[in-house]
Amino acid sequence: MRADYSTSGGGGSPWAIFAAVLVGCWAVAATVLLQGGGWAVDQVLLLGGLDRLVPLWPGLGLLTVLLIGTVALPLALVPRSPMIREAGRAWLAGTLALGVLEMLRAFPPVHHEVYLAALAATAALLALIATRLTHAARWSRPPEPPGGEPRGVAAAGEPRPGVVTLLAMAAGLALLLPWVWIGALGGLLETVLAGLAAAAVGVLAGALLDARFWSHFEAGEPPRPARLVLLGGLVAGVVLLLIGAGVGQSGAQLPLLATLPPAGFALAALHALTRRHAPDRPHAQDTHQAPHRPHTQDHPVQNRRRTPGGGRAPAAWLVGLGVFGPLAFTDPEEISLLLVTSRDVPFWVAVAAGAGLVVAVLVAIAYGLWLARPSARPPRRAVAVATSVALLVSVGTVAVTAGQPGLHGERLFVVLREQADLGGLPDGPGKAGRDARAGQVYQRLVATAERTQVDLRRELRRLRLGHTPYYLVNAIEVDGGPAVRAWLSSRPEVDRVLVNQRLRPLPAPPGTAGGSAPAPTGPPWNISLIGADRVWSELAVTGAGVTVGSSDSGVDGGHPALAEGFRGGDDSWFDPWNGTRTPTDRSGHGTHTAGSAVGRGGIGVAPAADWVGCVNLDRNLGNPAAYLDCLQFMLAPFPPGGDPFTDGRPARAPEILTNSWGCPPIEGCDPRALRPAVDALEAAGILVVAAAGNTGPFCGSVQDPPAPYPDVLTVGAVDQRRRVTAFSSRGPATAGVAKPDLMAPGADVLSAMPGGGYAALDGTSMATPQVAGVVALMWSANPDLVGDLDQTRQILRSTATPVQADQRGDNCGGERNVVGAGLVDAYAAVKATLD
């Protein structure tokens, strides 16, 4: 009988081992492919402007359970080897946990706090269920051999469990280090909930990888550490992979697929250290202990007495700290292809994941090498304490020095019910009439905001909640989370509260984009296609006397094609992101679009027009407040450090605004978010030109503000053969409004890039500034038309030329929803303006 128990942990038949290996490999492959594929689908939907597919992750969770659970279940029941059965049971439990946790991704990513709270509660409930099931399994186990200790129970004289827990804690802190260096925390509530969720996930891991789990890999007497580390570590690594795959919103789980599995080997080595030099277990005849009693009377009592916590603490600490990094120090909405073009959040998350993988492997090797020593014993408690404290101090030091300290959570955009009445404004021709209207609009907007915001701003000051008031939309940006949002939503003067997304800081700024194309020697194809070069040569009109405003990633003010056109003065540049005092641009998008509108050297449609600039999306993701910062500046420019409410100069407003951006729901906008701002600019006689978007060829894809608004001149893109590009967004827009309004060249458009270079880019972003440049030519040719937006739009539409619609057979409810009025014709429009 003694021999039976000493071999009960054996590996089993070769066929059973082979089946276990196949199941483990299948579990890893299916998990990685489904998680990566699910994130890719999310990103394709986001880039395509399509609605989020809510059932995606619950469906993938169910598919995961079917694909992995159906092969793990036979492994948990059929083989004779307890070790192989335990592997199957652990993988089955991990798969079920993954399936349940994936259901939580149905919560909208914008409500991250709600998701984290649900994750904490669900993981804690799963841990409780796993603990109960393990406890029931212990009661139902067969009796242990006479005189022997229960398998998996620490023998007297073994190291105190606290030493192993401290070593696991040190390993977890090492896994946390890369995230503290690279990432940044969100809001206070978000961080606390991330900590609770990470702790609950750690407890769940501990419940699945407790002493009972490890006991099945301790084959023979004395235990074999190599088998425990290699086989137990492999099985535990797959369990941790399954758990990690269910943690975090779409994107946040991807780093855990790399960093958690090696931790299984570290946990195995730690457990083996506690068993390596355990005292020989006495036989019944060598001691004065009482004869063996039936397990129903003796074993459970003994087990409860001798294994408090079931050996769960090491896994709980290591996994909990490892999960806390990506869960708290990254925003899942920023792990996006929208930011992948530069060294932004996706790049740094990949760096942190790679560093975490290296750290996890090194920790596992270090613990394994310590175990391999002939006289290996766990270090003294003082050494374990010192190691943990040293790593804790390192984490804190990195956080306040190399890291990004502080809280960087989302803010709230509070839209008030009352918006300014802009009826009955003075009317007059030309720039003088436009300036008079702009002044009246500015005064009414400010007066309305000051009157209606006074009580709310007083309350926000009393509660010490940071806030920024706006007037172009009667709104306030407020620091706060769900509780503040609920309070604000209940106030009578508040119409609605949007989540104002804010990008977390980076460990290093993204690199500046450049261009390698040579400067043009003559007008590029797009300039000739719309006839702008004929306007210069035949009509002697180049845009002089008109100012174009660019709200974008910035403008390289030193570029040879743009330096002379900058209007200058202390109210021609505003950078609410970085606080720069002179025109700069890192991404290149804004420099390229400004060059297409007013650039010298043949690239700009209106090369003699002036320009002013504002930075509204420094890293390709903005929010309602950031866009409003620039739109307010365009209505009433103000000097650096000035107050937009009191220091605005509406007479210095540019006549035309080019806007190659949109505010989708991921940034916090709803369809009405910027409508009051566009209405106010329209009333002031400022023409707003906006990109239709690059989410074609889907119908109804002109949807991100401000493109769908009727008063905006919305621009789609064509290629060199006058064909609508596949990426150009189609209408109809909201409420059936026909969009786009006009088309312009948007494929392979050559323009300026930061650093003095040039590049050819694609997008409706490239088409939009060309239409703004055409309007600048029109108003330069006939200054009396300045501010007459209806007449200007009518001329543009009536002089547009036909383009070739796509050949998909879907005209989106009418050709106007694909091509608008047609391709803008600069020569014909200016000619009509002069006539």
UniProtKB/TrEMBL annotation:
<feature type="transmembrane region" description="Helical">
    <location>
        <begin position="114"/>
        <end position="133"/>
    </location>
</feature>
<keyword id="KW-0812">Transmembrane</keyword>
<dbReference type="InterPro" id="IPR000209">
    <property type="entry name" value="Peptidase_S8/S53_dom"/>
</dbReference>
<comment type="similarity">
    <text>Belongs to the peptidase S8 family.</text>
</comment>
<keyword id="KW-0472">Membrane</keyword>
<feature type="transmembrane region" description="Helical">
    <location>
        <begin position="313"/>
        <end position="329"/>
    </location>
</feature>
<dbReference type="InterPro" id="IPR036852">
    <property type="entry name" value="Peptidase_S8/S53_dom_sf"/>
</dbReference>
<dbReference type="Pfam" id="PF00082">
    <property type="entry name" value="Peptidase_S8"/>
</dbReference>
<keyword id="KW-1133">Transmembrane helix</keyword>
<feature type="active site" description="Charge relay system">
    <location>
        <position position="552"/>
    </location>
</feature>
<dbReference type="InterPro" id="IPR015500">
    <property type="entry name" value="Peptidase_S8_subtilisin-rel"/>
</dbReference>
<feature type="transmembrane region" description="Helical">
    <location>
        <begin position="254"/>
        <end position="273"/>
    </location>
</feature>
<protein>
    <submittedName>
        <fullName>Peptidase S8</fullName>
    </submittedName>
</protein>
<feature type="transmembrane region" description="Helical">
    <location>
        <begin position="382"/>
        <end position="402"/>
    </location>
</feature>
<dbReference type="InterPro" id="IPR051048">
    <property type="entry name" value="Peptidase_S8/S53_subtilisin"/>
</dbReference>
<feature type="transmembrane region" description="Helical">
    <location>
        <begin position="163"/>
        <end position="182"/>
    </location>
</feature>
<dbReference type="InterPro" id="IPR023828">
    <property type="entry name" value="Peptidase_S8_Ser-AS"/>
</dbReference>
<feature type="transmembrane region" description="Helical">
    <location>
        <begin position="90"/>
        <end position="108"/>
    </location>
</feature>
<feature type="active site" description="Charge relay system">
    <location>
        <position position="765"/>
    </location>
</feature>
<keyword id="KW-0645">Protease</keyword>
<feature type="transmembrane region" description="Helical">
    <location>
        <begin position="188"/>
        <end position="208"/>
    </location>
</feature>
<dbReference type="GO" id="GO:0006508">
    <property type="term" value="P:proteolysis"/>
</dbReference>
<feature type="transmembrane region" description="Helical">
    <location>
        <begin position="12"/>
        <end position="36"/>
    </location>
</feature>
<dbReference type="GO" id="GO:0004252">
    <property type="term" value="F:serine-type endopeptidase activity"/>
</dbReference>
<feature type="region of interest" description="Disordered">
    <location>
        <begin position="278"/>
        <end position="310"/>
    </location>
</feature>
<feature type="region of interest" description="Disordered">
    <location>
        <begin position="550"/>
        <end position="599"/>
    </location>
</feature>
<keyword id="KW-0720">Serine protease</keyword>
<keyword id="KW-0378">Hydrolase</keyword>
<feature type="transmembrane region" description="Helical">
    <location>
        <begin position="349"/>
        <end position="370"/>
    </location>
</feature>
<feature type="transmembrane region" description="Helical">
    <location>
        <begin position="56"/>
        <end position="78"/>
    </location>
</feature>
<feature type="domain" description="Peptidase S8/S53">
    <location>
        <begin position="543"/>
        <end position="804"/>
    </location>
</feature>
<feature type="transmembrane region" description="Helical">
    <location>
        <begin position="228"/>
        <end position="248"/>
    </location>
</feature>
<feature type="active site" description="Charge relay system">
    <location>
        <position position="589"/>
    </location>
</feature>
